[in-house]
């Protein structure tokens, strides 16, 4: 149970690309494109001003900084040290007051249980060996009455075609090998993990990419990218 819930091969992929985190046209372009859309969705669920937020798997801080800019007090955690270095440097330049730590969600859940008003875990579950454990750690980290927001990629033939073949091989939006189809998670699987961890599962919303406008938008279609809002009962 205490073995680390981390895949070193996955972390290396992110470390190797760490210098590209803030290049809007680089390896993480889809995250830059997703960011405004998911920020709107997040603020529908939780007012960010004054909110104490934990961002699990924060990478270079694209989401962490955006939440901080809207008035949240943000701690970002990740296990890819190089990404955290980039995140800290970028915060120095931008003036964002985000704190970053290299610690796993599992360890932080032991150190600071029930401390956060909001826990975000976005585009990260599809990179860990045991997503149910990450979900459980998020549930332990949020305070009673607080919110946990997840996003990940669904697992079905359409998501394989669009998120792997389309995004990595046809459109070249992401480096080849970014995503392992077998690790994609169905909304029902995510919801099962959340409920097993004592969370109430609420809103499920899709995000659709339009290759012509090169924009994401919120959508009823959850076949590929989707967001799930959960609440820890008071
Ligand atoms: N959440 C950010 C970055 C998503 S990329 C965003 O949406 O903009 C996925 C991130 O998860 C990478 O930064 C990677 O280093 C991190 N990650 C992968 N496995 C992890 C683990 N076990 N613990 C913490 N972070 C992890």
Notes on the protein architecture:
The structure is a single chain. The protein has helices at residues 8-16, 29-45, 62-69, 81-94, 105-111, 131-141, 157-170, 187-196, and strands spanning 52-56, 73-78, 99-102, 116-122, 142-153, 200-210, 215-219, 225-231. It is an alpha/beta fold and 234 residues long. An eight-stranded mixed beta sheet has the order 3-2-1-4-5-8-6-7. Helix 5 (105-111) runs parallel beside helix 6 (131-141). The longest helix is centred in the N-terminal third of the chain and has 17 residues, at 29-45. The chain is globular. 42% of the residues are buried. The structure holds S-adenosyl-L-homocysteine. S-adenosyl-L-homocysteine binds at residues 5-6, 10-11, 14, 31, 57-59, 62-63, 78-80, 83, 104, 122-124, 127-128.
Shape: globular
Across the major sheet, the strand order is 3-2-1-4-5-8-6-7
Uncertain stretches of 5 or more adjacent residues: none
Q: Describe the main β-sheet briefly.
A: 8 strands, mixed
Strand content: 15-25%
Number of helices: 8
* Structural Rg: 16 Å
Topology diagram in text:
Blueprint: H1 8-16, H2 29-45, E1 52-56, H3 62-69, E2 73-78, H4 81-94, E3 99-102, H5 105-111, E4 116-122, H6 131-141, E5 142-153, H7 157-170, H8 187-196, E6 200-210, E7 215-219, E8 225-231
Helix pairs in contact: 2-3, 5-6, 6-8
The structure holds S-adenosyl-L-homocysteine.
């Amino acid at each position: 149970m205490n073995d680390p819930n981390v895949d070193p091969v996955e972390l290396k992929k992110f470390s190797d690309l760490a210098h590209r985190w803030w290049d809007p046209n680089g390896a993480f372009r889809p995250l830059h494109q997703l960011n405004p859309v998911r920020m709107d969705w997040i603020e529908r669920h939780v007012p960010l001003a004054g909110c104490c937020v934990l961002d699990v798997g924060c990478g270079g801080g694209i989401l962490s900084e955006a939440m901080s800019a809207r008035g949240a007090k943000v701690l970002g955690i990740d296990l890819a040290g190089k990404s955290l270095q980039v995140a800290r440097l970028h915060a120095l330049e931008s003036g964002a007051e985000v704190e970053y730590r290299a610690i796993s969600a599992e360890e932080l859940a032991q150190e600071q249980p029930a401390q956060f008003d909001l826990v975000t875990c976005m585009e990260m579950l599809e990179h860990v060996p045991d997503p149910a454990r990450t979900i459980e750690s998020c549930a332990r980290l949020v305070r009673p009455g607080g919110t946990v927001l997840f996003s990940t990629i669904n697992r079905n033939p359409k998501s394989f075609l669009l998120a792997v073949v389309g995004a990595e091989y046809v459109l070249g939006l992401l480096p080849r090998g970014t995503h392992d189809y077998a690790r994609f998670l169905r909304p029902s699987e995510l919801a099962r993990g959340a409920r097993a961890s004592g969370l109430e599962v609420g809103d499920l919303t899709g995000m659709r990419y339009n290759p012509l406008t090169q924009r994401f938008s919120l959508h009823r279609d959850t076949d590929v990218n989707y967001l799930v809002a959960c609440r820890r009962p008071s």
